[in-house]
Design goal:
The structure is a single chain. This protein is mostly helical and about 120 residues long. The chain has one domain. Helices cover about 75% and strands about 0% of the residues. It has six helices and no strands. The longest helix has 25 residues.
């Protein structure tokens, strides 16, 4: 697999996980998110996927898309994976409802350039 293909695979994982999160939180308010442990854990799991995929993107690719806060994405993954302190539910909620759409919009054109033209799950 060429480096671009590896990056494309990781980008696919990021976009797919972001779409899962969008589906999970559709029509959900903060109160329900705070009280629904299974929903919260599902979102946190997909954020782990996003952070892990971001961590494995080539440094060259990350430099091509400097508008994406790669260190913050990877840092959130580390917090979730290693439980550094208390995970702030409201922070996770804000990422889920506010930040993921922009991430997908930044990355989708690159995936399209790699020839991926099907809908992403």
């Amino acid at each position: 697999m060429h480096p671009d293909e590896r990056d494309a695979a990781h980008i696919f994982d990021i976009i797919s996980a972001a779409h899962d999160i969008e589906r999970f939180v559709a029509g959900v308010d903060l109160h329900r998110f705070e009280t629904d442990k299974m929903l919260r854990y599902a979102v946190e799991r997909q954020l782990l996927v996003i952070g892990e995929a971001a961590k494995h993107l080539s440094e060259d690719f990350r430099k091509k898309v400097p508008s994406v806060p790669w260190n913050a994405i990877i840092g959130l993954r580390n917090i979730l994976a290693h439980e550094y302190g208390e995970v702030l539910t409201e922070r996770i909620w804000l990422v889920a409802i506010r930040d993921l759409r922009g991430l997908v919009e930044e990355l989708l054109p690159y995936l399209r350039k790699q020839g991926y033209n099907e809908d992403i799950p």
